[in-house]
Automatic annotation (TrEMBL):
Entry keywords, A to Z: Hydrolase, Signal
Signal peptide: 1-24
Key word Repressor present: no
GO MF, one example: carboxylic ester hydrolase activity
Top-level taxonomic group: Bacteria
SUPFAM superfamilies: alpha/beta-Hydrolases
UniProt keyword Hydrolase, yes or no: yes
Organism: Muribaculum gordoncarteri
A UniProt-annotated Pfam family: Peptidase_S15
PANTHER family, per the entry: ESTERASE ESTD
Residue stretches making up the Xaa-Pro dipeptidyl-peptidase-like domain: 146-401
The protein's name in its UniProt record: Alpha/beta hydrolase
Length: 453
């Protein structure tokens, strides 16, 4: 081979090395990891840097994780490989015309994961409000009893007269939530605030303590702590000149907090969206029972497992009453109860005892019936008949204990108040609707009726 050919081959080789990273993959691509009966959506957000190389972050919408940094090892016109050290994962795939077919690996396990381009957020979440708005949006703060500063958004309707307007404080469901109660790119509290403002109703929504821009520690908080945070938000609204009657709107655990505040006559009215009316123990047992129904476990084994879980919950509650929290000996409970339980189930229960939170210890013993008996002011309680997290028969408990309550069972709606097929949580992210228009209308009508009395 002459020197000129050798030089040509060398230049081609060098050029191929530089072009290895030159292909720019852009946009969001989504796939689902199948983990037994569970499907976990994963979103890869690709962008092109100034030098033409591909960059990437990962989202896990179901887990509320966004922008997890990843390192792209290479990206060519037909393949992609990246690592995500933050979660000990990697992904490699072949780039097709309209898909990426590949494999996701994490901590020694590999799963097939094919990605499809995701539609723009405007198409996937058409109800999310976008400016310009015909109302005021004001960033503000209020202070919780322990000094935590709650970062909030006050939405005020257009000033049409000198009359005061009703307002509602929004309280999110369980887990650390931002002010929009954002989940899988759905922003239900933002949608509610927008609808209410357009109908002459003010609202205040806030980042949970230790979440977003709010200070405080969420990990040490219980439902009772969160109730006091909400109480401070209502007090803040009462300091505003343009605000008349002030109510509380709570979703899921927030609905239960609405009952607790109602028992203290703090809000002028209450709205519960899928609020828990039975005890925390009963609710969690039901949820566990549904998960077991989705497996191949037989009825006898299911009964034994739920009996064991119930006794663990009882022990946790007894500890909480004494002000202690120590790991429970699962094996001893199994032995003393004479139960036959799958070792994997027992092992899973042992893992829950390794690091218990104050929230779960308190939640198990929380019984909203105690508070509902004391509610005297107007209450609207809504549930969807496809709710698989807080079952719709919670409405019967509310109706029995609060006879004056307005009860609405909405056909076809899930726990998030979306029109659904099965009601399972796995559907939440696939549904374009954030919240049913019928629910929005019911909320606005109820608040308006309360403000005129």
């Amino acid at each position: 081979m002459n020197s000129r050919l050798k030089l040509l081959f060398a230049m081609v080789a060098i050029a191929s090395l530089f072009s290895f990273q030159a292909y720019g993959l852009t946009g969001s691509w989504k796939g689902e990891l199948t983990l037994g009966a569970t499907k976990l959506p994963i979103v890869f957000n690709f962008s092109e840097s100034g030098d033409g190389s591909t960059q990437c972050t990962l989202d896990s919408p179901a887990q509320g994780a966004k922008g997890i940094p990843a390192t792209v090892a290479y990206c060519t016109s037909d393949s992609i490989s990246l690592t995500c050290n933050a979660i000990g994962a990697s992904y490699s795939g072949r780039i097709m015309h309209d898909a990426i077919k590949g494999s996701f690996s994490q901590r020694g396990y590999s799963f097939p994961l094919d990605l499809l381009p995701e539609a723009p957020i405007e198409e996937r979440r058409p109800q999310t409000p976008r400016p310009p708005f015909p109302y005021e949006v004001i960033d503000t703060t209020f202070v919780a009893p322990d000094g935590a500063v709650m970062s909030a958004t006050l939405t005020m309707p257009e000033r049409l007269s000198g009359n005061k307007v009703p307002a509602v404080l929004m309280v999110s469901g369980s887990g650390p939530q931002n002010r929009d109660e954002e989940l899988m790119d759905h922003r239900p509290f933002a949608v509610i605030a927008d609808y209410l403002a357009r109908n002459g109703i003010a609202s205040l929504r806030y980042d949970d303590r230790g979440t977003g821009q709010s200070t405080g520690n969420f990990l040490t908080a219980t439902t009772y702590t969160l109730k006091d945070d909400a109480k401070s938000g209502i007090a803040f609204l009462h300091t505003l000149d343009r605000i008349g009657k002030v109510g509380v709107l709570g979703h899921s655990e927030g609905g239960t907090i609405a009952f607790m505040l109602g028992a203290e006559n703090v809000p002028d009215f209450m709205i519960s969206l899928a609020g828990m009316a039975i005890s925390g123990k009963e609710t969690l047992l039901r949820q566990n029972g549904r998960r077991l129904d989705q497996t191949a476990i037989g009825d006898d084994d299911k009964e034994s497992i739920l009996t064991l879980i119930g006794r663990v919950f009882d022990t946790m509650h007894e500890q909480n009453l004494k002000g202690v929290s120590t790991a429970i000996d699962i094996d001893s409970i199994v032995k003393e109860s004479g139960l036959t339980v799958n070792p994997l189930i027992a092992s899973s229960l042992k893992m829950t005892q390794q690091q218990r939170s104050p929230w779960i210890d308190a939640f198990i013993g929380l019984n909203p019936r105690t508070y509902l008996k004391q509610v005297k002011r107007p209450l609207l309680a809504i549930n969807g008949d496809k709710d698989t997290q807080v079952y719709p028969d919670n409405l019967s408990v509310i109706q029995e204990l609060v006879p004056q309550a307005q009860i609405k069972l909405m056909p076809g709606l899930n726990h998030l108040m979306q029109h659904a097929v099965t009601g399972d949580a796995g559907e939440y992210g696939d549904i374009r609707e954030t919240i049913s228009p019928e629910v929005l209308e019911s909320i606005a009508q109820f608040i308006t009726s309360c403000s005129t009395k």
